Amino acid sequence: MKTQTPGQRIKFIRTEGLGRKLNQEEFATSIFLSQSQLSKLENDETEVSEQTAFVIEVVHGYKMDWVLKGKGSKHPLKEEIKEDLVNKFEALDRLFRKMEYYPKSKKSFDSYFKLSDKKREAVDLIIHCLLGE
């Protein structure tokens, strides 16, 4: 199977790279997409986002760089590394859920990252003082 485009690489993972062939619905569900979204990705009708590539890396062990650019090893990650990535993904997921629960926090995060390093340090210090740390 060709693996020249991100879509072809995703199809390779789904059909040959996991030890068994998954149908589009099964694979899409495993990476939090709909079957139609996966179909568009595999046919290179939609660009593969970094978020989707990250989820594929965490869930199925294929490196993000290989999925997106075809660079590096396509081989699945070692179990210890995969476990570390799952933990990081879960931490990010918790953070995103909190941001969804508090809509104003999204704007605050965006504003925070527009600040200079020195101003971000000041904000961090204020937060730590408010928390009594």
TrEMBL record:
Domain of life of the organism encoding this protein: Bacteria
Protein name: DNA-binding helix-turn-helix protein
Pfam families recorded: HTH_3 (PF01381)
Keywords linked to the UniProt accession: DNA-binding
Source organism phylogeny: Bacteria, Pseudomonadati, Spirochaetota, Spirochaetia, Leptospirales
Cross-referenced CDD domains: HTH_XRE (cd00093)
Span of domain HTH cro/C1-type: 20-67
Naturally occurring in which organism (per UniProt): Leptospira alexanderi serovar Manhao 3 str. L 60
GO MF terms held by the record: DNA binding
Gene3D superfamilies with a match to the protein in the record: lambda repressor-like DNA-binding domains
PROSITE patterns per the UniProt record, alphabetical: HTH_CROC1 (PS50943)
